Fold each of these.
Amino acid sequence: DGGITQSPKYLFRKEGQNVTLSCEQNLNHDAMYWYRQDPGQGLRLIYYSQIVNDFQKGDIAEGYSVSREKKESFPLTVTSAQKNPTAFYLCATIRQGRDTIYFGEGSWLTVV
Amino acid sequence: GENVGLHLPTLSVQEGDNSIINCAYSNSASDYFIWYKQESGKGPQFIIDIRSNMDKRQGQRVTVLLNKTVKHLSLQIAATQPGDSAVYFCAEKDFGNEKLTFGTGTRLTIIP
């Protein structure tokens, strides 16, 4: 089935560690997005990418990094510079010229 | 900037009544708007969308109204059901750069 796969579903990070969240899609979509959601709050844009080898900062990019080496993949690294990383992370995609956005199931990151 | 500490506005509606959820958007260049529904622990689910050349669009039990003059969007849900209880987000998209930004969200509770 076509879709977006995020992994891991749950991740625990020790303070000072970098962790990488995976987002893979087989929908052949061009644009990919990463959002952060804190409990009881809305979605905030971290990074987005319109095409391979190109990405732009969203509203809360500090402490995060991304890469877009392949169309299918848009991994997000939460670095040790992100002081409050505990949150729900959502990956999404849109096909160029279309409007419907597809979301992954999300990844829960907890700092221990 | 970050909105850490802000909590979702809430709306409680009696089952069977109509509900109206409002959203203010910020970017005058946005030309596409979407409403999403999010249940606890899941990714957002598409409800209905509208382009900036329209001011009203209807779906099944839902209507979206767009007022570009005051940059306001609303979602009307008719004859609410218990399954409508969720958090509802509006999103705006600027086709110039594919950036998709979500509003704060509203928690809708349907009272049996």
Amino acid sequence: KAGVTQTPRYLIKTRGQQVTLSCSPISGHRSVSWYQQTPGQGLQFLFEYFSETQRNKGNFPGRFSGRQFSNSRSEMNVSTLELGDSALYLCASSSGLGGYEQYFGPGTRLTVT
Amino acid sequence: AQSVAQPEDQVNVAEGNPLTVKCTYSVSGNPYLFWYVQYPNRGLQFLLKYITGDNLVKGSYGFEAEFNKSQTSFHLKKPSALVSDSALYFCAVRAMNTGFQKLVFGTGTRLLVSP
């Protein structure tokens, strides 16, 4: 099976712009989660989707949003980018919620200048 | 609120020696516990998990972890470390009470295995 894919892999944006990141889960996986990884804050949970419904949300401002499509692919959007949004954004998919392990993609490295 | 603590930023061990990476957790409800590993410039990889049943769980690459409910711990262990085990290790917990809560990760422990 193909793994989790994320596009783009690298992105450079300017403050105030918006960005959309894409994630394609492993075939058959219905749950997708998003995380922000930074050296100072570690891995911070953003969202979790299952069957197109947001099941959990992290403590991020409303500038961060996401969605999941009927084919389980997911996108996250960050509007009005700030310098502090520079991070590695990781997507993970799993068969379901609860005790199912998550499989991570390689991440999208976002740099905001 | 659920939380995970990895008290050591770094663990140093010589190749061939046993290793332990510590993790303690705090949840309301039953915990689902996970260990992930991140190699340089690579994504996180699942190592093992505890859901229910036997307190000692075995995972990939010879790793194992012991669930201790009374001490709320889930330490990662390996009998004989390899240089290739050098990486960043994350413990994570998800609580099950009124529905499944979000997966919360610890801050990570860097394991350095010297030849």
Amino acid sequence: EVQLVESGGGLVQPGGSLRLSCTASGFTFSSYEMNWVRQAPGKGLEWVSYISGSDNTIYYADSVKGRFTVSRDNAKNSLYLQMNSLRAEDTALYYCARVDAAVAGGVVFDCWGQGTLVTVSS
Amino acid sequence: EIVMTQSPATLSVSPGESATLSCRASQSVRSNLGWYQQKPGQAPRLLIYGASTRATGIPARFSGSGSGTEFTLTISSLQSEDFAVYYCQQYTNWPLTFGGGTKVEIK
């Protein structure tokens, strides 16, 4: 069974840091592009970051550029998001999402974790 | 950044009826458009990619159409499990962007 499990969320003060993890199972992790997508409470979806299978291509949303760093460890089937200088507006449920390999040249998400909640508050 | 605008924000439909959801892009995204369904407390589920291709396991009552800047998701004969929030997403340009969502509720 294909599965993504996020962890690492929690309550952090403004200006603080957190590192999110996403552990994959049931598929060849290194063959898939991965992303982070977030959803503020009661709001819509916001794409955060992309990393290619070999991690030589990375993209960020402008809202997190310079503060967040995405990485992966294919040997551990894991995706990470290092979040620094956190702001109240970063409060959200953070999903890791797999890119559908059947969509040639496209980035849509065919598998999602259940999310990990990040709350930035003093 | 390509802005995706969905309408209406809320759609009230009776079970068995059809629903038509719209998504508009601020510039052409060709056919690089996906649709997702999200139920309360759940992660989104991919329904459609390439504007009109159903994802694996998606029932035929879900259909997508459009290209360029205007897209439609049609759900025919709504079932109880179809009441949810629907999002469109473009993947022509970075950053990837989602629409604000359409909530399909029971009338």
